[in-house]
Structures are given as structure tokens and as C-alpha cells.
Fold:
Amino acid sequence: LTLPQLTLQSEGTATLTSNITLKDFLPDEVRARLQLNNFKAIDKLGSEAFINGAIALDGRWPNLSVQGDLGIPRASFRLSFFNMGGNAVNKDVILVREQAAAKAKAKAKKADMKIGEPDVWKNLAVNLDVQAPGNVWVDDRVAKIEASINIFVRKTQGGELTYYGKVRALNGQVFIMGREFQVTKGIVDLPAKPGQDPFLDAQITYEMTDVTLFAEASGPVSDFKVTLGGDPPISENDWIAYLLFGKPAGALSQEQYGAVAAETFGGLATRVILQDFLGMARPLTKGLTVSYQHRSDPLYRDDPYQVVIQYRINKRFSVQSQVGGRNTGGDVLFNLDF
Structure:
């Protein structure tokens, strides 16, 4: 079976050629080549990515090997590509840890039923490198970050598929409540062990006249720890006060301090500021969610930021309270969705 040339066009091109020798109408010797030239592989939800490179598939069935080098000349992603809000992940994005857990469960079920993996997958060897020295952007209203990518996909005959490497932030800004934080460090380590969580190590800073605010995130991506601080050292109350009003908590009015106290209640500032603005805040408990809101209408010109606490009683009915400098006691709203 010979495929002289199949060309797919998506701004650039992806060209496939192959030659498969049959034996008793089954594949015997396989040789295939895929050449990518500035091919747009992703175009969804305002995100796009282009790929260059080549992939080769060779071998005698079922002992095949995949080798190749792929480069990403440019890419731009909106945060909505990875997260559709409210913990609902875009169906086109597969989370590594969830995929690994699903594979482990499926593997155990197949073992119980004495169903083995197909020989072609079990014997497949993979040696694939994905590189992007830069020009890969997260470009959204809350973040503009350039990153480099070095990922290695490996599999030995009889082994499991693994992917490891680093995604590193080269430069960028994160916008929190109208202030432009600089990305001073951002590394995501992908471990070689299947099912193990990627590890996050990141820092953003914002320089003010008398203090430099920083926020650090470190740990497994499924449960990373966020630390707020400053240079010189400051408390979390002062951190929020500087962020909201540009001065320490001791210099605030009573109304302003009430807003700061609401932000730091129960140590929730790290959730509200660094997780919820990315659309990743998880409920504190079943039905209870804390989020942050920026009001743009003239009535709230002097106090645009509010903490929103919502408790969902059932699918259609919820209770919501908003706390800020203008309403330090909190407004209670009853919502009926229909």
C-alpha cells in the first residue's frame, strides 16, 4: 500500500507519505513520514499554535517505532482554552493526572478481565521531542506571559508512555486589580514518572514607593501553596491594603480597613487573588464559593472591588453576599436560576 502524498492545509501544510508492505492482507513492514511546515494545529477559543518538524514511523509489525522533532514557531493561548470557568475544563484539554488515573483504572479492569494491551501499542517505541525557545504566549486580560517549552515524549518496548521536561516563563505580566505584576519566575516541571503531578514554582512582583509586593506559588499543580509577602516584610493584611489602596492597613480609614479585613478573612486572600482571577477557585466546602469582583459602574468608582461569598442550596437557588468598602456589613442577595 503506497500513499505518494497526502497534504493537509491549515495556513501551513502537513504532508504525509507512507509505504506499507502486506503479508496475508495484514501489515508487515511499515514506513511513514509526516512533514509539518508552519501548520496551524490549534485554532480554538481565540487560541492558536503552529508546528514545524517531522515524525517518522518505521518497523516490522507489530514492532514499530516513532521518532521525531517538533518545533513551535509561535503560539498564543487564552486562559479560556484551558479552563471554561467554574472548574469546568475544556473538553479538548486532557489533564495529565486525570488521564493517568483513568488509564490506571482501565488497566486494572483489563487485568481483571484478562484483556491485554494490543501488541502494536505494547511493542511501540517512542522518541519524540517538542521544543519552543520562545514566542509561546499566554495572552489574556489578566496575564500576558511568554514561555519556552522543552518536552520529551518517550516509550520503550513493553514500557509506559512518559512525558517530561519544563515549561518556563521568560517574561510577562499578571494583572491583579488594575496593578501590573511582573513575572520574575515561572517554571512547570513535568516529571518522568507516569501519573505524578507536574510541579509549579512561580513568583510575581509589584514595586511600589515604599514596598515591593510579591506572591509565590509552589508545589504540585493540583495542590500548590501560595505565599504573599513583601520587601521589607509585611503582613497579609498590609499586602491586601497596599494592593487595594496603595498604603498599609494602619493608614486606612475604617471603611477601607473593613474591606481589607473581608479579603483576609480566614486566610482567603490567596484563593481570591491568585486562583479565582484565573477561574480556578475551588469551593471551600460543598456549595460554598468565595470570588472577587471588580465593579466598573460609576456608583462604585471609589470602591470598585468586592468580595462575593455564594452558597448554592440546590441547582436553581443560591444565596449571595457582597462585602466591600461601601457595604462593610454585606448585602445578601437571593438568586433563582431558571
